Fold these 4 entries.
Entry 1:
Amino acid sequence: GKALAPAENGAIWIGAWNGNVVGPHDGLWKFDKEARRIPVPGMTRVSAVDTDARGTLWIAGPEGVWRHEGQERFRKIAELPEGGRGSPVHALTVDSDGNPWVSVVRSKLFRLRNGQWERNGNLAALPDARPYVHARDAGGRLWFGYGDGRIAVVESDQVKILGPDQGLDLGTVFALYVGKHTVAAGENEVAVLVDG
């Protein structure tokens, strides 16, 4: 799998993970006219990347979650939650408070807050499933797209669920773009969401 995030001056961070056996292209790469591997001690496979509201890069994979400390140095923030260790991270989003949210393959959604992993961020209104995609909008709201076609929007620990009751027939949500126009792409349709 591959994951992309913007870097400074138009460059691109690339996380790469090509399966259960570590390969020569796994890890973190930076593309700025050419691709260059960026060594991250203790991390061999990068399956998810995100930049937080301040532009700091975060990376995650089977070995845990790391934050970019500048000058191509990274600091390990945490191991994955119990039961998810050694599994790829399907998606990573960092909330406005600097807390990483991860969707762990064959597991669930977790938020790391105050050094502790919280399943579903301790938000009972979130679906009890692993979202396929995450996004954070300019206002700091988190968006999660699920396999059953629902979208959850989290704002200040309040959850709003969008789905068939709002006229959506997305099927599995494969992509979310949150910006001037919020667009959700699923197996059945692409929807432009008005007023999220």
Entry 2:
Amino acid sequence: SDLPFAVSESGALVYHTRRDVSLFRIARVAPNSEPALIDLPARALVSLDLSPNGRHLALSSLESGIYVIRLLDLETMTDERIRLEGSNWWPRWHPDGGQLAFLSMRKGDFDVYLKDIRSDDTPFGWSEDGHELLVFRQNYVEGAKLTAVRVPTDSSAPVKVLAEGDFLNADVSSDGRWLAMTILRSGRPEVFVQPY
């Protein structure tokens, strides 16, 4: 069959039943058990691949006219879109379980890229005194956080976690008293302000 599927080392199998871009659901089959639908919205899935430890499922789907890659945590049953440029599909796990290779179209060409999914840091801005850098830490296994990192980096200084969520932007006010953040919630950007 040419239906996409993935199997972990433990023998867990995930598959989808259609090859076109119609909406469909994902089922999970453990050894010696019946298929069980995963409780997530139906999507226009293109491909999927199960992590070597069987905990995460990388899937590509057609969303708003582009192909995106999502990671589904099969223990918590939560999924998160990986931030990537262009249109991306056919994710394949590295044997170490921390990287994904995938096909991408970014400038009209098809290329293969490798993404470390253990962390993806994006600098957003500086504190008013210039001693802290606001960093969006996207860890696709542990979650996303907005942090403040001391500069120059002091390995003994704790990293301050300011908030958790899928951040689009953040900055500190010029007087250093307020933190403004744009967070993606329910597919929509929302602006929040809190004391810094």
Entry 3:
Amino acid sequence: YAVAPEALSSQILSGYTFILFSEFEVWDTLSFVSAPVSIDCSDEFLSLIKGKTYFIRTYGCQANVRDSEILMGIFESIGMHEAEKYVDADVIILNTCAVRENAVDKVYGEIGNLKGIKNRKDKVLCVCGCMVEQPHVVEKILDKHKHINLLFGTHEVQNILSYLETLLFGKAKRIVDIKSQSGKVYENLPSKRMNE
């Protein structure tokens, strides 16, 4: 799936800091991109985020599980720790699936539940995965769920620290980054197995 800017109403998108889109590419060739193992963030951000907690709830297929493992690996590599309950986490991520309607309904229920815990301005609430690559989903979340800070697609997992740095330093209140980079496979990203 890909989202084109014209697919979303200008009324919903007005006033947001980041809206990044690109054209959908066909998987005719695969290119492997070696992601840097070092973390490219400011020392000030790394000092701020170290010791904070994260919580990831994963819906869907093995690809989503793998993306969640990469997110966990990135977080652990900078000194963050996994929270046992999402209410205790500083960063909460719902990694979504759009294949089954039941999973989509569960995600909307979870998004609604998160509204009640958005009690600190430095708490970051994220929705990622293939569900947010659908234009009507992005519109609905932006319009009805203003407590969600970050929406990003399946090909933007490696950018999580950049998003967090932007949000936590007040450079944006919300970030939407949904673009298709089909054909690129990122290697050498940190990872933590879900059941370790």
Entry 4:
Amino acid sequence: NVTLRSVNGKELAIIDGIGAQESVVYVGNNQTGVEINGFTIKNGYGSASTQFSNKAIGCGILIDQYVNAKILNSNIIDNGVGSTGNFSSSSSVDSYGGGIAIMSGSFAEIDNCIIKDNLANDDAGGIWFYNGSGGGGIINNCYVVNNSNPNSNAKCIQWSGTLDLTITDNTFITTPHYQGSSCLLYTSDAADEEDS
């Protein structure tokens, strides 16, 4: 078990990835009982995941394969290839999950978080679940706003594969001047989803 918990809360506990071409927080394969609680995570670029060795995945937070994690009471802001804090929007690097990426077989609970102003050049400016066979997540009481992706579908949340995903009591906002399609939630495959 790994717990990363701030003492003074997310406004004072800032993890800034500016200048480093990797995810601000990376959780490796097969980790259980991971908790990230009470941080501002910003200016991440994305790391190679087990499934994608040549792409920038999970610019703010990358949860790699077969992980059980909680992301609580945190701000995930201004991350991504092309984000305002770090890199040029003309970058040719493929990026997925500007704020958070959750890879195959992983389960992530995301609660009471702000996921804002993140960018992915490809899928999901906000949160990306990839090929979620055996995985899934809970997204609860989050504010997901003004995330961008100029080349694909969902600005807020996108997933592929069979996924057990519960989405409750969240606010999703996007505005026309933010790049990408107007789709807030998008899936390319069948999903077992609850939405309330």
